[in-house]
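Work Package 4 report. The design task specified in the project plan requires that, given a folded chain encoded as structure tokens, an amino acid be chosen for each position. We show below one input record used in the internal validation round.
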């Protein structure tokens, strides 16, 4: 990708960012492949906002980023629980 400076000093080259693949899960995939939980439990987590999701038409999707945030929140909750019980 090139951008001209317009001042006659030649083109400016912009570094192109590498393409990033965004993994999207269905509720069923998340239940089976990631957490080994029931679909009903995943739906509960989505419904209560514990796992962020969005819709494309009538299909619900969950990003890898949302999965990682949810896991991080579980780890933090467990650390807080352990710290509280150790005090």
């Amino acid at each position: 990708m090139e951008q001209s400076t317009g001042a006659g000093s030649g083109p400016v080259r912009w570094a192109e960012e590498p393409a990033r693949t965004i993994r999207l899960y269905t509720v069923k995939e998340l239940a089976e492949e990631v957490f080994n939980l029931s679909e009903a439990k995943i739906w509960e987590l989505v419904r209560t906002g514990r796992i962020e999701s969005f819709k494309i038409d009538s299909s619900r999707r969950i990003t890898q980023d949302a999965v990682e945030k949810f896991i991080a929140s579980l780890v933090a909750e467990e650390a807080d629980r352990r710290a509280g019980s150790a005090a």
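The chain has a mean pLDDT of 88. Validation will be extended to a larger panel in the next phase.
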